């Protein structure tokens, strides 16, 4: 939110299943009842952001990340929280949720998405769905050994999604695989092909008989970390409206702490005694607020860079 405020632009904040459990507290049992910590943590995150966003003066889209079939109790818990919040406030707690049934066969993936979208649409909640698989490893899900063909979607798959979900509402987006992976790997190990999305867009446009300048599909870019500016630009041109940048923000968060430690090493070995004198206190160096703030500052700069790459700078003054 600090990064978004600095560039006068809206931002999407999302919580993953594992991130939500972490937000709740790692010691809370998340198995019985199923996903209770992830549900409570996601709700707490959403309430916290709602409480604080107004101080930054920017719109925030609240979203939840990948939810595979085995995590559906988490999704159900968040939807129940949305319904409760909607009852009281006339709007849902979250703006948007992701369902990721990309490991299931397409028919099951799409039909499950349709039935959830019907429930969500009553509260005008957006659905992000995944088809084709994002490679790599993230949040405890390891797709590193996946069949390479599954990392690239076919236009027929996108058309099937567009037809089925579009019959319910236009409020959905497609995380269509185009060789993207979670995490950052050595150059050459990832063959990103954002051009696939433009092909999908053309195919769907033709099916719909849409105008040449229309982009009927709304795409999402997973595994944005480590991507070239050129690939990002191609993806945005093909209709990508959201990019996830997790690994690079994790890295920059750590970088801030690492650099602070290196710069202040002599002040961080004991509670009392540093290069300025053996009786000097070190509290102002080891206070977590000091070094966590350094992490926030380096992460904020990386988020600003991601927003620049995506064309999300000074967006609030451009709004029509
Ligand atoms: Zn993802």
Automatic annotation (TrEMBL):
<keyword id="KW-0862">Zinc</keyword>
<comment type="pathway">
    <text>Carbohydrate degradation; glycolysis; D-glyceraldehyde 3-phosphate and glycerone phosphate from D-glucose: step 4/4.</text>
</comment>
<dbReference type="GO" id="GO:0006094">
    <property type="term" value="P:gluconeogenesis"/>
</dbReference>
<dbReference type="InterPro" id="IPR000771">
    <property type="entry name" value="FBA_II"/>
</dbReference>
<dbReference type="InterPro" id="IPR006411">
    <property type="entry name" value="Fruct_bisP_bact"/>
</dbReference>
<protein>
    <recommendedName>
        <fullName>fructose-bisphosphate aldolase</fullName>
        <ecNumber>4.1.2.13</ecNumber>
    </recommendedName>
</protein>
<keyword id="KW-0479">Metal-binding</keyword>
<keyword id="KW-0456">Lyase</keyword>
<comment type="similarity">
    <text>Belongs to the class II fructose-bisphosphate aldolase family.</text>
</comment>
<dbReference type="GO" id="GO:0008270">
    <property type="term" value="F:zinc ion binding"/>
</dbReference>
<dbReference type="GO" id="GO:0006096">
    <property type="term" value="P:glycolytic process"/>
</dbReference>
<dbReference type="InterPro" id="IPR013785">
    <property type="entry name" value="Aldolase_TIM"/>
</dbReference>
<keyword id="KW-0324">Glycolysis</keyword>
<dbReference type="GO" id="GO:0005829">
    <property type="term" value="C:cytosol"/>
</dbReference>
<dbReference type="Pfam" id="PF01116">
    <property type="entry name" value="F_bP_aldolase"/>
</dbReference>
<dbReference type="GO" id="GO:0004332">
    <property type="term" value="F:fructose-bisphosphate aldolase activity"/>
</dbReference>
């Amino acid at each position: 939110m600090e990064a978004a405020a600095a560039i006068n632009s809206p931002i999407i904040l999302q919580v993953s299943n594992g991130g939500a459990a972490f937000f709740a507290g790692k010691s809370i049992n998340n198995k019985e009842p199923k996903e209770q910590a992830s549900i409570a943590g996601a709700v707490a995150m959403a309430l916290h952001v709602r409480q604080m966003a107004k101080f930054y003066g920017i719109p925030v889209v609240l979203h939840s990340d990948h939810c595979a079939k085995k995590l559906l109790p988490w999704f159900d818990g968040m939807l129940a929280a949305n319904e409760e919040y909607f009852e009281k406030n006339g709007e849902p707690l979250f703006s948007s949720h992701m369902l990721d049934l990309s490991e299931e066969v397409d028919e099951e993936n799409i039909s499950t998405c349709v039935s959830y979208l019907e429930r969500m649409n009553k509260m005008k909640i957006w659905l992000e769905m995944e088809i084709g698989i994002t490679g790599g490893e993230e949040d405890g899900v390891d797709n590193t050994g996946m069949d390479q063909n599954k990392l690239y979607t076919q236009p027929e798959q996108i058309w099937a999604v567009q037809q089925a979900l579009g019959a319910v509402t236009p409020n959905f987006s497609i995380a269509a695989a185009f060789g993207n992976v979670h995490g950052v790997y050595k150059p050459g190990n990832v063959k990103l092909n954002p051009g696939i999305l433009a092909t999908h867009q053309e195919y769907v446009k033709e099916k719909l008989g849409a105008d040449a300048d229309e982009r009927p599909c709304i795409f999402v870019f997973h595994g944005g970390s480590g991507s070239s500016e050129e690939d990002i630009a191609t993806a945005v041109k093909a209709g990508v409206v959201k990019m996830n940048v997790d690994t690079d923000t994790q890295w920059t968060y750590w970088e801030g702490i690492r650099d602070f430690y290196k710069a202040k090493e002599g002040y961080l070995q004991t509670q009392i005694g540093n290069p300025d004198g053996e009786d000097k206190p070190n509290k102002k160096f080891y206070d977590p607020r000091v070094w966590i703030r350094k992490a926030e500052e380096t992460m904020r700069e990386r988020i600003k860079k991601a927003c620049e790459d995506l064309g999300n700078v000074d967006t609030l003054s451009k709004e029509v």
